[in-house]
Amino acid sequence: MTRIILIVSGKGGVGKTTLASNLSCALAELGEDVIAVDANLTTPNLGLHTGMHLTPHTLHDVLRGKADLGDAVYTHPSGFRIIPASMSINDLTGADPSKLSNVTMNLLGKADYVIIDSAAGLGNETVSAIAATDEVIIVVNPNVPSVADALKAAELARKLGKKVMGVVVNRRSRKSHELSSGEIEAMIEAPVIAEIPEDSAIAESVAAKQPVVEYDMHSPAAVEIRRLAHELAGEKFTYKKPLRLTLLEKLVGWVGR
């Protein structure tokens, strides 16, 4: 059975695309068949995050009736598949977001997971993306404005009869001013299912156009995203931090070459 999961928030810049690309990659590592869809039609970034932003066909072409769905599906080197959106503002004309439901319906049975990266805000694109999905993951940063906006997204999802799986707290730095997980859960009325720490490896991986779970699998953010992927897949997650060599050990290794 295909699980269709939307990554959504109440505002932009909280880390939806980072989660969508890395969760797709981490699930593929577990042997799951995954298709990631960039449903952010106005400001798409999934292709940029994965180095697949200059493809011949995009979701825009599908929604405009200019290409078949199969023509817009591309395989990432890590194993998951991507339906990117167009970076060109010219392709916005005629791209009807209400047709997203047709896209997801046509993906049923073609993957284990369809991970959808939604647009920022709660406009027509996001409403259409919520309508086209079954389950929703809410992404927030640990501050009041982010959580307050995400609450609206959660309420909209529930109003449309969708299951809110939980909240992913992104860019957690453990500062005293940050909202606690308990406070976030109380506001959104959904469990916190992951807390991704502030991690410089994320920015580095985006610059490298590579998911951080591949770019630096031992970085704190990558470990937490992989843990979440295991949880979604019903797999046990164990992680053993690699031992750091002492300077003496490094010198011994160098001399022994």
What would you say this structure looks like, in words?
The protein contains eleven helices and eight strands. The mean pLDDT is 94. The protein has a single domain (3-255), classed as 3-Layer(aba) Sandwich (Rossmann fold). The radius of gyration is 19 Å and the shape is globular. The chain is of the alpha/beta class. Helices cover 39% and strands 17% of the residues. 46% of the residues are buried. The protein has an eight-stranded mixed β-sheet with strand order 3-4-2-5-1-6-7-8, sandwiched between helices.
TL;DR of this structure?
The chain is about 40% helix and about 15% strand.
Between the first and last Cα atoms, what is the distance in angstroms? 52 Å
Low-confidence stretches: none
Order of helices and strands: EHEHHEEHEHEHEHEHHHH
Number of helices in the DSSP assignment:
11
**Class computed from helices, strands and strand pairing:** alpha/beta
Label this structure with key terms.
single chain, 257 residues, alpha/beta, Rossmann fold, eight-stranded mixed β-sheet, 11 helices, 8 strands, 17% strand, globular
Topology summary:
Elements: E1 3-8, H1 16-29, E2 34-38, H2 46-50, H3 59-63, E3 74-75, E4 81-83, H4 100-107, E5 113-117, H5 124-131, E6 135-140, H6 144-159, E7 163-172, H7 181-188, E8 192-197, H8 200-207, H9 212-215, H10 220-233, H11 247-255
Helix pairs in contact: 1-10
